[in-house]
Every structure is written in structure tokens, then in C-alpha cells.
Known about the structure:
Layout: H1 2-22, H2 28-51, H3 67-102, H4 116-120, H5 122-145
Helix pairs in contact: 1-2, 2-5, 3-5
Amino acid sequence: MVSWATLLMVLITFAVVLLRYLLDTGWIAMQESITYLHALVFMLGAAYTLNYQGHVRVDIFYRKFSDKGRAWVNLLGTLLLLFPLMGFIFWVSWEYVLESWKVFEGSREAGGLPGVFLIKTLLLLLPLSLMLQGLALILRSLAILRGEDRG
């Protein structure tokens, strides 16, 4: 889904540029859809990226560690960094998203997209999906540390 959203984002961006410079026209909703798709790609793609170890990390030491050493880094990093940060993001976003849902918040721009409350919901889905993926990482790390898994 995220791959298709990325392609759609590129195509809409191309269309916006063509409309603006060739026909001297454009639509606010079309421009806002690029922002919505961008948020969707990054917020929903974060857990997937974590699963495939695609996040930026300083691996000067990490890549030289044994499987058990990497498992310890992943376990402690998830417990001490990922979970607290995602818990905090969820906690501070909850009321903000709830207020948006109460009024079914829409765009402030005339002709903009009506679903601002939906895109704000990603502020809750991001930490939830990353914490679920973090739980999988913890379980995988524990299996490696117990000698049940080779990575």
C-alpha cells in the first residue's frame, strides 16, 4: 500500500507542476493530497522499515557485533528508546487527535480536503505500529539470546 501511495504522490506532484506551469491553474485539494500521501508513506512505512532494519543507525560497532551482541543492542534499544518515545508520542497526540475527530476537522483552505481528522489519526497509528514491530523485535532478540534463532 505504501509503495502505491508513493507512486501516486509522484504522479500527483507531476500533474500539479504541469497544471501550474503549462495551464496556470491548480487545485488546493490536489496539492493537499500530496501532503496527506507523504504523511501516509512515512507514518505507515516506519514499522515496515524497522522490520527490515532500514532505519538509520550508527553501526560502526553494531555490524562488528556477534548475533547475540546485536540482539542485546536491539533489545535494549527497543525497551529503553523506542518504547518510551512511542509511548510519549501516543500520549501527547491522543487529545490532539480526539479533538480533531470531535469536529471532523477539515482543511482550513477553501477547496481543501475534508479529512484532516483522518490524517491526524496517523499520529496514533505510528507509535502503535512501531510498538508492535518493537515487540516482534524484542521476541526475536530474546530468541537469539536463548540460542533458539540464528538471526
